[in-house]
């Protein structure tokens, strides 16, 4: 793989992280308010990592590959969390053996498809790389949107979150959800900086939405591991849902995403009502629409 995209992203990531730290936060003397750069200077990072300014500059400019000890020191100095450290290693080409990429692969694993069919009261969908929506069950369509009506090229969770007004209104804390999705997408982009479909998705969203463009430029990264979100559903009312992911062993880039609620809670009852409503709607639809 060509290193151009990876090294360019590495430099941007390092610049973004050092811009967030002040000399005082890392134990350096503050030279006063008249600093020409926001955050730490390159030479200050170099001092803290115990390397020359020229060495650090070459790393940031993509002209020299950093050793693992230097990367570990950079992660410590820049106060990276676990996901950010893993992202740094990926960008620096130290993230382990390269994994084969099947960029055109969109076929859902049969086991995941069967599991989707069995989940009659739990919203679930299969996400691929870039948060492409590969498959879903009727409950996910009832909860989020009728994915069958969305053109395949826009059948993408983050695209809908930023571009569909109904999806924005559905998320009670839209900004929090959207920023989290941007960070997840950024983490995925670091694993394959030359993916043309990722570049097209990011480019389109950057043109369409100022928030996406600004948050993408923050270079925050996160893993798609689960959490909680509140939805304001037009039929089921307010739903406070836990979401989690299950990866396929045979296709690790495909993840089953599940939305659940604690039994006995209003949200659990709301999901049961939504399942009943979705079933009634399906039974009353003409055969051609089923």
Automatic annotation (TrEMBL):
GO terms for molecular function: DNA binding. It comes from the Bacteria. Residues 35-85 form the HTH cro/C1-type domain. Transmembrane segments: none annotated. SUPFAM superfamilies: lambda repressor-like DNA-binding domains. Pfam families: HTH_31, MLTR_LBD. This is Helix-turn-helix domain-containing protein. It comes from Streptomyces mimosae. The lineage of its organism: Bacteria, Bacillati, Actinomycetota, Actinomycetes, Kitasatosporales.
